[in-house]
Amino acid sequence: MSKRALILVDIQNDYFPGGKWTLSGIEAATANAARLLEAARTKNDLVVHVRHEAAKADAPFFVAGTPGAEINPGVANRAGEEVVVKNFPNSFRDTNLKKLLDDAGVTDLLVAGAMSHMCIEATTRAAADFGYAVTVAHDAAATRDLEFGGVTVPAAQVHAAAMASLAFGYAKLASTDELLAG
């Protein structure tokens, strides 16, 4: 029998308006993540909040000990819910995430959070490589415009490319409404 965990990655204050690294669509993504969080709590699924802390004090965002590095109140952890602190895009790298999941007998992961093209991709790929069945809530994830070679790539396209890449070989993708209906 499968056991699911909800992994909320880097839904932190610096990604919100007024923060140091605002993402496009972060409020809508967080509202959907909050719906998934409530459903997971109701089902007594394991909930793991992942919080990124920059390794250097002069980092552009997520500096340890600052309000921007804190989990956004919209999806704040409750007593007893695990918080994994990471320093790399991959939530498994140099953390206890895999041990937490394995100790709980988790086989299936539902992933949401930020940024779509970085930490969501890195965490999802690692989870699939570890053998977990992974679903990404594509409308509970957000990113920002990127630039390459003098070309600005709009956030919606960055997000779509990241989700398409994950759907190609690493995860099932679903909307929050589909996940809550199923």
From TrEMBL:
Its EC number is 3.-.-.-. The keyword Hydrolase applies. Keywords: Hydrolase. This is Cysteine hydrolase family protein. GO terms for molecular function: hydrolase activity. It comes from Labrys neptuniae. It comes from the Bacteria. Pfam families: Isochorismatase. It is an enzyme of class 3 (hydrolase). InterPro entries: Isochorismatase-like_dom, Isochorismatase-like_hydrls, Isochorismatase-like_sf. Residues 5-169 form the Isochorismatase-like domain.
